[in-house]
Amino acid sequence: MPVTSPHELVYLTRHLDGALILPGDPGWDARRSAWQLAVDQRPAAVVLARSAGDVAATLDTARALGLRVAPQGTGHNAAPLGPLDDTILLRTSEMAQVHIDPARRRARVGAGAVWADVTAAAAEHGLAGLSGTAADVGVVGYTLGGGLSWFARSHGLAANHVTAATVVTGDGRVLRVDAEHEPELYWAIRGGGGAFGVVTELEFSLFPITEVHAGALYWPLERAEAVLSGWRDWTATVPDSVTSVGRLLRFPPLEEIPQPFRGRALVAVEVVAQLDRDDADELLWPLRRLAPEIDTFARTPVTQLHLLHLDPPGPTPATGDGFQVTGLPDEALTALLSVAGPGNDVPLLTVEARHLGGALTPGACEGGAVSSLDAAFGLFSGGITVDAGSSAAVHAALDALDAALAPWRAPTAYRNFTERRGHGLAFEPADVHRRLREVKRTYDPLNLIRANHPVRPAGTA
């Protein structure tokens, strides 16, 4: 039942350290908005949580009123949540504390912490976390969904390195979760997503990485076939200390986009190598032999890695989606380029393939529900969607890519790269999903907690 009157939430306002915001209140539009501006979130109410107690009180009130609760830090992957009219949006952005324990090489962060804050704090001690490509992504949501970093081929998914968490369950209990306490819940939150409880604090391992050899090579889009096939062949030769992305990029002619990118279509290869300069230069020679127009490689502090992937610096009206493939043989590259290559007027700003393998290979790392990615490459594509027309065009292009690469699709997808609802993609094998449903039944039997990729309690339809 949607909230229609403030009186229905009087109980909640009496038990919050944070704030309750209802439709029409000052700040309503700003607080209900996700980072993904193409998503028009209209929840029944917004709670700005400041503590685990606030989270428990919100869950208790929602249960009493027949509502649900959707935790959200930044809203980078908000689209799969769907309509929120019967849901309290639980914003955790004010729970952004970051504590670094350099002796144990651990970070402990609040539910609202973003990677920029963790990276800066850890770097002061010569350490780094397994952050994603963008600095403003929330640490908790990213990690619960797996966490695919520039160091993934050497260290695996970020979720594998979670050591403990504070979790508020669907029945309002505040639990310490680790290998010895609530082990099934500990297993589920490591890669299984955020459907099992609201994580208010996360503890994870850090690594002694201070700088890397990193950068990108760019060519005109007309070179896409030669560059992508050369990059694919090159990935078969690199050590696990090297992670790379092959991309097709179409930059709009906007003033805020610097030259020489503004208004151009390019093919790019981005690389992060945990190697010294000489070894990295030797490794890059096969790519440089293809005569890139732009070469940005340099010794790079980990605090600057977020600039490599050219992610937008703030909230963006965009729609994207991804899937995994078992390989990129010539036929697959031809299929990809038939949709997004030269001569195709597609509305996708990026079409990219990330090299997987290494420590992401099944069996390479022990972890939780999803501890590996059983694929050779992870694909992600997206475009700007400012109105119904542009949204339809981007969705059509994403569908065309899906269809073109269907013969090479891997059996499972990666949660954090899957941003569209209703595509029926599996994120884990069937036996793992059944176990996740049992965990959901134990800790949230009423299905009170909404995640962007839901897991229903066992025994329910």
Automatic annotation (TrEMBL):
InterPro entries, alphabetized: FAD-bd_PCMH, FAD-bd_PCMH-like_sf, FAD-bd_PCMH_sub1, FAD-bd_PCMH_sub2, FAD-linked_Oxidoreductase, Oxid_FAD_bind_N, Oxy_OxRdtase_FAD_BS
Residue span(s) of domain FAD-binding PCMH-type: 39-209
Cofactor(s) needed by this chain: FAD
Record key words, sorted: FAD, Flavoprotein, Oxidoreductase
Pfam families for the chain: FAD_binding_4
GO MF entry, a single one: FAD binding
Family: Belongs to the oxygen-dependent FAD-linked oxidoreductase family.
Protein name: FAD/FMN-containing dehydrogenase
